[in-house]
Amino acid sequence: MTMVVGLTGGIGSGKTTVANLFADYGIDIIDADIIAREVVEPDSKGLKAIELKLGADILLTDGQLNRSKLRELIFSQPQLKSWLDDLLHPLIRQRMLAQIEDSQSAYCLLVIPLMVENNLQSLANRLLVVDVEESVQIERTLQRDNVSEQQVRNILAAQASRTERNAAADDIISNNGDSSALPEKVAQLHHHYLELSQHTQ
């Protein structure tokens, strides 16, 4: 069984940058966000169930899910979010486990933004947290996503606090500065994980 390193961090922390650095070493990356999009692709079980519940106007003209419309509906009907989570989380989990099973690298990286919030660290042998100060998260997200500061603060409020995330972590990469220090930090952890993976085979 491949050793699984869980990777998480709050919005704007630099998870993708860190994951890409591990991928450069040939490490398999299993990304929950990508899988979450796959399970609602046209003709998928997930999308068919959503269409059945919410009607055909939840689809765009090309048959894709109308994400912004779904977001609005979820925002105004909290019970709908629970229904959607109950539908999609098992599908996402099933696909993540299948990809872990298929992984051929020395260890694999399981990237889940809300890993601590959804208590999914049990899927991983170790938990790596990309940690940043809140002010840095806000600044980066404003630059990247073209949203209001209030929206970013709302997202932060819905996520685990830095303290909660860091308390759950086995390893922490601090990413407050510029990202030029990241390759060295990832290189050290990569060698550490290679050593650990030999003991978990």
Could you characterize the architecture of this molecule?
- The structure is a single chain.
- Strands 2-3-1-4-5 form a 5-stranded parallel beta sheet, sandwiched between helices.
- The chain has 2 domains: 1-27 and 105-201, Rossmann fold (3-Layer(aba) Sandwich); 33-104.
- The mean pLDDT is 92.
- By secondary structure, the protein is α/β, with parallel strands linked by helices.
- 54% of the residues lie in helices and 12% in strands.
- It has helices at residues 15-23, 32-38, 45-54, 67-76, 78-102, 134-145, 149-158, 162-168, 182-200; strands at 3-8, 28-31, 107-111, 126-131, 171-174.
- The chain is globular and about 50 Å long.
- It contains 9 helices and 5 strands; from the N terminus they run βαβααααββαααβα.
- It is found in: Cytoplasm.
- This is Dephospho-CoA kinase.
- Pathway: Cofactor biosynthesis; coenzyme A biosynthesis; CoA from (R)-pantothenate: step 5/5.
Number of helices: 9
Question: Order of helices and strands, N to C?
Answer: EHEHHHHEEHHHEH
Radius of gyration: 18 Å
CATH topology of the largest domain: Rossmann fold
Q: How many domains, in number, for the residues?
A: 2
Largest sheet: 5 strands, parallel
Describe the strand arrangement of the main beta sheet, using strand numbers: 2-3-1-4-5
Low-confidence segments, given as residue ranges, are none
Give me the count of strands. Answer: 5
Proportion of residues in helical segments: 40-55%
Coarse shape: globular
Structural class designation: alpha/beta
Mean pLDDT, rounded to whole units? Answer: 92
Cα end-to-end separation: 6 Å
